[in-house]
Design a protein that fits this description.
By secondary structure, this protein is α+β, with helices and mostly antiparallel strands. Helices cover 15% and strands 43% of the residues. β13 and β14 form a beta hairpin. It is elongated and about 120 Å long.
Length: 375
């Protein structure tokens, strides 16, 4: 009986601890946030805002919030803030929900959800643009020392299948906090805008923000559906080819050098591909390098076409596409060297001499024999 007293004390202490841990969870009630709103703050950008429930008790706990994006694409995340900025397409509408959460030991307490919604903008089906594509390109801005590089933007699209003939489209882009409307359009045979050109933009050459593009339209016969699309800059950047490619042959060594492309990225941010074409033998050699020089062993009696292209390396941003090939550089010659020509002449003369000698010997052996006189 005496030996069981410590065991009972231990068990009663464990029960007391469990009750102390469970009691707050049973009595503590999390209330959902209030005044949840969704506000459009820019092209393809919304601000979600809510407030803590004023009836929440106790008020000295560190509450968090679980945000769930329901449309246009499912997503969810946790935050301690009472507002959240979201970059997303809006032409299909937008809806989200938020709840109060609190971690209590190993368990998660959560309130009920509150939701808000943005309706899709009006428009007749099949009237919005389709196949919207955009590309950026960097050029040197010699007139500005503050911004030595300028990024251009070009977008193209097709007219919606059910868009009336009088439909006219208008394009806008947003990068960061800057928004611009297109001023230079290309048109189809019906004089409808089908492409846009921004020679100068607010896009940063080394930027990582999303590029938001919005195209709306007008017609006397139908409401034109708007269209939004987000572009990652690394995926649409048209990298410039390397500059000042030179090639030189010394003996059997082909040496190629070049300079980095026009780009806001520094020298160490580029990978390169070198293409060497042997014109006489008709085969290619392609090599990948990270330096701005390459040496290859070649046949010194051939002519070569050399080209180089570049891509921003994964060490500086997400992988993108290769640039166009640089202009061809030709080096070497197809002409036979004098020594080789003399060697061929001697070889042919020796062959002719051997043939003539063999012919004479054969004729001597096969000539008619004289008959012996009869006795």
């Amino acid at each position: 009986m005496i030996t069981m007293v410590p065991v009972l004390l231990i068990l009663s202490g464990a029960v007391a601890i469990l009750q102390a841990e469970l009691l707050p969870a049973e009595k503590f009630l999390l209330l959902p946030p209030v005044n949840f709103t969704i506000k459009v703050t820019g092209l393809a950008q919304v601000l979600l805002h809510w407030e803590p429930n004023p009836d929440q008790k106790p008020r000295n706990v560190n509450l968090e919030y679980h945000v769930k994006i329901n449309a246009p694409q499912d997503d969810d995340y946790e935050t301690r803030n009472t507002e959240s900025k979201c970059v997303t397409i809006l032409h299909r509408g937008f809806s989200a929900s938020v709840q109060t959460i609190l971690w209590h030991g190993p368990s998660l307490l959560a309130s009920s959800w509150v939701s808000a919604e943005l309706k899709a903008p009006p428009g007749s089906p099949g009237t919005s643009v389709v196949n919207l594509t955009c590309t950026t390109n960097t050029a040197a801005d010699n007139g500005s020392s503050l911004w030595p590089y300028q990024v251009s933007l070009r977008c193209t699209w097709l007219v919606g299948q059910d868009a009336p003939e009088d439909t006219q489209y208008f394009l806008y882009y947003r990068y960061g906090s800057q928004t611009e409307e297109c001023q230079e359009y290309s048109k189809d045979a019906l004089k409808r805008n089908i492409a846009c050109w921004f020679p100068r933009t607010f896009i940063q050459g080394k930027g990582r923000d999303w590029l938001a593009v919005h195209v709306n339209g007008s017609s006397k016969h139908a409401a034109i559906e708007p269209f939004d699309q987000l572009f990652a800059l690394h995926a649409i950047d048209q990298v410039n080819p390397p500059l000042n490619v030179t090639a030189e042959i010394e003996g059997t060594h082909l040496s190629i050098q070049w300079e980095k492309p026009v780009s806001a990225f520094p020298t160490h941010c580029f990978d390169y591909e070198v293409k060497i074409y042997n014109i006489r033998k008709g085969y290619f050699q392609t090599e990948k390098v990270t330096t701005r020089a390459f040496v290859s062993i070649v046949d010194d009696a051939s002519k070569y076409c050399v080209q180089v292209r570049a891509a921003v390396s994964a060490t500086c941003r997400a992988a993108g596409s290769w640039s166009r090939w640089s202009r061809p550089r030709y080096v070497g010659t197809d002409e036979q060297k004098p020594l080789a020509r003399w060697f061929l002449v001697v070889l042919m003369a020796a062959a002719c001499f051997l043939l003539l000698t063999s012919s004479l010997l054969c004729r001597g052996k096969l000539g008619p024999r004289r008959r012996r006189p009869k006795s």
